[in-house]
Structure formats: C-alpha cells, structure tokens
Amino acid sequence: MDRNTAGIILAGGQSSRMGRDKAFLPLPGVHPTTFSARLATLLLTTCQEVLLVARDAEQAEQCSLSLPSSLRTTVRVITDRVVQIGPLMGLYSGLSAMHASQALVTAVDTPFLQPALLNFLLEQSRVHPEQLLVPIVEDIPQVLLAIYPRHILPILEARLAEGRRDPRALLQGTSVIKIPEAQLRIFDPQLRSFINLNTPEDFSSYIHD
Length: 209
Hints:
Blueprint: E1 2-10, E2 26-27, E3 33-34, H1 35-44, E4 47-54, H2 57-66, H3 69-72, E5 75-79, H4 87-97, E6 102-107, H5 115-127, E7 132-137, E8 140-141, E9 145-149, H6 153-161, E10 176-179, H7 181-187, H8 200-207
Parallel strand pairs: 1-4, 1-6, 4-5, 7-10
Antiparallel strand pairs: 2-3, 6-9, 7-8
Helix pairs in contact: 4-6
C-alpha cells in the first residue's frame, strides 16, 4: 500500500460516442463488474485512498449506487467543482479533494489497466517523488494515465483560468518526466492499460475478443 498516493478515476465525460455512461459498462469475467468498480478495486490494492470524480451530483449518485456495497465505504465519489469544463476540471477537483501528496490518475474508459504497469508507475513515483510522470505511447503523452503531484494545483488553476480543458495543457511550462514506450511494454507488452473504449464498436471488439 502506497501511503503517499491516491487513486483518481475520472468518470465525468459525456460518453456521447458510446451512447451510454461508460462508468457503468460491464466488464465480463468470473464475477462481472463495471468499468468503474474494476478500476476502483485495482487502485485500492495499492493506493491509500480512491476518488471517483463525477461530472455532477446526478452522476455522482448513480456512481455511488452502482458500486458494490464492499466499495461504497472505501471509494469517495466527488463531483467536478465546475460542471461541463472537461477532464482538466476533473483532475483539478480530484487533486483538490485528496489527502495524499500525489495521485495516479486514470480515465474510467481504460478498464484494462494492468496491475504490473500500475505497480511500475508507482515505483517510478518513488524514484522521482513530487514529479509529474507521464507515459508516452506512439509519441503521444498519456495524460489520462499518469502520476500527478498535488503541488501542481496552482498551475492547474492557471490553465483553467486561461480556458484550457485538456490535461495536456499542463505539459507546457511544467517539469515532466516522460516514461518511454519501451519501458511500459516490459510491464504491459500489449499496452492494454492504454486502450480507450469510446464507441459501441470499441466495446464489442475489445470486450469480446
């Protein structure tokens, strides 16, 4: 258990391309579970606290009710501080509400996060404490599966004040440690941790493969 790290699940997207809320999509298995419940269960094995960030009070209530009873007392469901801003606001809301000094942040639509990769990222955060750690896949910064220190909150506030919505805005003028794809593949050879399910076709393809 990493006592200095929170797990933050960003669940506040509109899911417009999927046509239904991705937080509640079922992930088949021996014991079928939702995307949000699977990620929360995994993060609870390594993080001192887990927060699920919903877009508004209505979704937050649905998220709470959808979690198994075993998770309802351990996962904190919060809402974006300002609605309809985007993932940068979700990140800001989560970092503001957590008690830990850093967070492993993941999007709810990446349900295949691999335990080995999760542990690797947390180990990197111990090697580089208080640093923003961002994996790189196909030369693209994976800002929705990264380690964020709480001390970047003032930078977040500045980016939001500028009207920015994408977490990639934080990569400008910020010290970032980039984790190359070759290192990531050691722990997740197929990079399943970074698969986003955005459409019904994505869901059908990956869930039933």
